[in-house]
Amino acid sequence: MHISDGVLSAPILGAGMALAAAGTAVGLKKLKEDKIPQAAILSAAFFVASLIHVPIGPSSVHLILNGILGLMLGWTAFPSILIALLLQGVLFQFGGITTLGVNTVIMATPAVACYYLFAGVVHKPGAISYIASFACGFLSVFFSSLLVGTALMFTQESFFEVAWAVVIAHLPVMFIEGLVTIFCVGFLKKVQPELLPKWSAAQHQAALDSRTKMVEKQV
């Protein structure tokens, strides 16, 4: 999903830098002090997951986790992903420095989109939570692969076939990311549901009361 240096045209690189800067500014503005540790942990998870990759032409196939990252961070996904990509480029020459803005937009924009699409339903009980979680993971990778293809095609029309290859190659990753997101959301609902988005104060208090009762029974 990373695009390497020397592939994209200057206008695409410039547009990517501008959009990434705008998204990062919004994300930093919305980042509250108590959410910094959570953002750091998710950024580290993204960093590790996307290091294991299989090269495909000017791009690569790997786990991304931008769906669950966007679900939990919203706009803060932009600075979190930007930092992870910067470290990957500097430490491992993975991706690129000139394409840092474009790669950030490719992975962070779908993350924010999935937040707005699914944040209101993943915490709900029943099958709707699992469906929304799978769709969040699946679509985050699908949207990212479409953005990769778009960036390549706007650079050079001859990249059309490569763009389609990137989308098709990521189909297995889309399903895997969907299943991983189901697992992550299900785990959080059991151990710390307040980390999920749109978790109301009433639900938070109910969860605390439930935990208190469990502790009292054990004592």
Strand count, sense and closure of the main sheet? 2 strands, antiparallel
Instruction: Give the strand content.
Output: under 5%
**Amino- and carboxy-terminal Cα gap:** 51 Å
Number of domains: 1
The mean pLDDT is: 81
Strand and helix order: HHEEHHHHHHH
Sheet with the most strands: spatial strand order = 1-2
Helical element count?
9
Low-confidence stretches: none
Helix content: over 70%
Kindly state the number of beta strands. 2
Helix/strand class: mainly alpha
Q: From the 3D coordinates, which CATH architecture would you assign?
A: Orthogonal Bundle
Radius of gyration: 18 Å
* Annotated CATH topology: Arp2/3 complex 21 kDa subunit ARPC3
CATH structural class:
Mainly Alpha
Shape: globular
Organism: Desulfobacter hydrogenophilus
InterPro entries: CbiM/NikMN
Protein name: Cobalt transporter CbiM
Subcellular location: Cell membrane
